[in-house]
Amino acid sequence: MKVVCVGGGPAGLYLSILLKLQDPSHDVTVHERNPEGSTYGWGVTYWRGLLDRLHARDPESARAVEAASVSWTDGVAQVRDETTRHHGDQGFGIGRHRLLEILTARARALGVRLEFGREVTEEPAADLVVAADGVGSALRTRHAGHFGAEARPGRNHYLWLGTPKVLDAFTFAFVESEHGWIWAYGYPYGPEGSTCVVECAPDTFTGLGLDRADAAEGLVLLEKLFADLLDGHPLTDRAPGGPPARWGTFRTLTNRTWSRDALVLLGDAAHTTHYSIGAGTTLALEDAMALADALGASPDDLPGALARYERERRAALLPAQSAARHSAQWYENLPRYIGLPPERMFALLGQRHSPLLPYVPPQLYYRVDRAAGRLAALRRLKRWLGPRIARAASRG
Question: For residues 219 and 202, what is the distance between their CA atoms, to the nearest angstrom?
């Protein structure tokens, strides 16, 4: 099979690796519009489940990814002058540039052709063309009427930054300014530093003047606001070899269908989930696994393979998409929770994926959740009630 993958991010590179491992005779080319070694962003997060799946698929690249990653088990919340720390599941961070280096080297070693520095906007001639070219996919946009892409913007503004401060846990820092709350999600990705995503409501964004400040002025203001988190370290808006980061509102992308003849969508070109659940890279890599499996199971039936891939991934994505939607809404309604005692606020931060939480007074939800931890019947009731209340509210 001749396969052309447009987009050299984690999804496209990992798919090329899996296809060559599946059948070395596959002719696989990956096109990436940016020069080799350049990327947008600092670190990405993932969890043990993904690492186990990577080891099962390709132990060689999985070992390299694990060796280049850092891990943590604690979550920290800073609210005003108070800090609370909770022990949780093991999380991992890796520099996006390092992840791409590992996958690029592995793909090249397996015989994948890698073409950098040229944007592909028309479908190449191939048995299969994979659009892994991101949320703004040019290949998908060429057939916009067919794919039926819909992008729903979120309310809050966010900015993706880096810092040389190496955090020891996944850290949430909430700062109250004279124009409202502004907060950061921070996590380490290696000895060189941490990712720091800043978010705030529209009124805070304009009240602080972040809509009018130039890049340097904005960074100075954010460094002052998050001085306790940064401990004297600077923020940077430019990853090595990448463009400067810009404020934006997150767009949740969905598509009516994921394939058209021999063209199929992968990763962010097919779907996005809010960054606050830290699942983007994981979901993209899982897309690659599912597409490779479907192609391997039906090598002589491309339409059937693409239909199976889409069907399986849509079903698998439902929990993540629900969690992302409720997580984004939690932050959009931060004033509802921020006045709680820090340990309770942090507990509800951990429960932000719940469809029940928005419809129950926070203090009551906290008490019910604590009781549910001891009573199995109450846990079952909570799981049963949440989706039903959410559906009823959405119809109303």
Answer: 18
Query: What SS3 class is residue 211?
Result: coil
Sign of the CA dihedral with 366 first, then 333, 325, and 70 last: negative
pTM: 0.92
Which amino acid, 350?
Answer: G
- Measured in degrees and rounded to the nearest 5, phi and psi for residue 216 equal -65, -45
Q: What is the pLDDT of residues 250-285, one digit of tens each?
A: 999 999 999 999 999 999 999 999 999 999 999 999
Euclidean distance between CA atoms 27 and 1, whole angstroms: 6
pLDDT in the model for residue 242: 75
Distance CA 349, CA 88 (A): 13
CA 383 to chain centre: 25
Which ranges constitute the DSSP H helices of 72-150? 96-109, 138-142, 144-147
Rounded-to-integer distance, Cα 59 and Cα 65, Å: 10
Q: Report the DSSP beta bridge partners of residue 128.
A: 3
**What's the CA gap between 32 and 107, in Å, rounded?**
13
pLDDT, mean of residues 172-189:
97
pLDDT digits (tens, 9 = 90+) for 328-379: 999 999 999 999 988 899 989 998 988 889 988 999 989 888 877 655 554 5
Q: What is the Cα–Cα distance from 254 to 326, expressed in whole angstroms?
A: 16
DSSP states of 25-89 = T-EEEEEESSPTT--S-SEEEEEHHHHHHHHHH-HHHHHHHHHT-EEEEEEEEEETTEEEEEEEE
Q: What is d(CA 93, CA 70) in angstroms, rounded to the nearest whole number? A: 5
Burial of 295 (0-12, 13-18, 19+ CB in 10 A): buried
Please name the helix (run of DSSP H) or strand (run of DSSP E) that holds residue 238, with its range, or none.
none
190: left (phi over 0), alpha (psi -120 to 50) or beta: left
Q: Which residues contact 151 (CB under 8 A, 6 or more apart)?
A: 135, 251, 252, 253
- Alpha carbon of residue 390 to chain centroid: 24
298-332: per-residue pLDDT in tens?
A: 999 999 999 999 999 999 999 999 999 999 999 99
